[in-house]
Amino acid sequence: MNTQTTVHPKLHHYGLTTANLDLMIDWYGKVLGMTTNYRLAVPAGAQHGPGFSAMAFASNDEVHHRIAFFEMPACVADPDKRRHRGMQHVAFEYESLDDLLGTYARLKSAGILPVMAIDEGLQTGFYYTDPDQNIVELNVCNYDNESTATQHMRSASSAADRPRRIHVDPEKMFAARIAGASPRELHERAFAGEFAPARPPHAPALV
């Protein structure tokens, strides 16, 4: 048993409180392929209850749950949410740019569009907001392996030489990929400004 050094556990799941359980389950099912593996309604007036009326546990892989939803009917929207402490965003990684772009096209057909898209050198990320305005990032690594991406990040020793972050239009990237451009070409053309959005994105502040 190791009692001296830090063990590195993997992120397993996270929990969200919501007043819109059905809406959240539906959105995460459409966007991330989350399947609800367990759902429970808490009887009204339950003695020493947990403070929520229902819960649901969902996953998009072999693990029993990756997201836990807790419905609290009294929850209200926070119009000043971005200025308050809390989780800034959560990210999910795809294995290929085609998976990311294909997901973009699928979600667009369902009326779900990103609020912002960025090529930031080490990765390309599309940012969405769920029904409760939590930020969900869908990304793909722009390198062949994560260790190279880590070295890319560590190469920025100060704000002055921070790796560039380029806003992109996912529709332009998708069209270029369909036309035959390779993922590497898309990355280079993004940094050349070819996929710049027609207007600045109206999106929540991101690091």
Order of helices and strands: EHEEEEHEEEHEHH
Q: Remind me, CATH topology of the largest domain?
A: Signal recognition particle alu RNA binding heterodimer, srp9/1
Give a quick account of the main beta sheet: strands, pairing sense, barrel closure: 5 strands, mixed
In CATH terms, what is the architecture of the largest domain? 2-Layer Sandwich
Number of helical elements? 5
Helix coverage percent: 25-40%
Mean pLDDT across all residues, rounded? Answer: 88
Give the CATH level 1 class of the largest domain: Alpha Beta
Unreliable runs, pLDDT <50, ≥5 residues? none
Q: Provide the β-strand percentage band.
A: 15-25%
Report, as a whole number of angstroms, the end-to-end distance.
38 Å
What would you call the structural class? alpha+beta
Structurally, how many domains make up the residues? 2
Strand order of the largest sheet: 5-8-7-6-9
Number of strands: 9
Output the radius of gyration.
Answer: 20 Å
Q: What general outline do the C-alpha atoms trace? A: globular
Name the assembly state: single chain
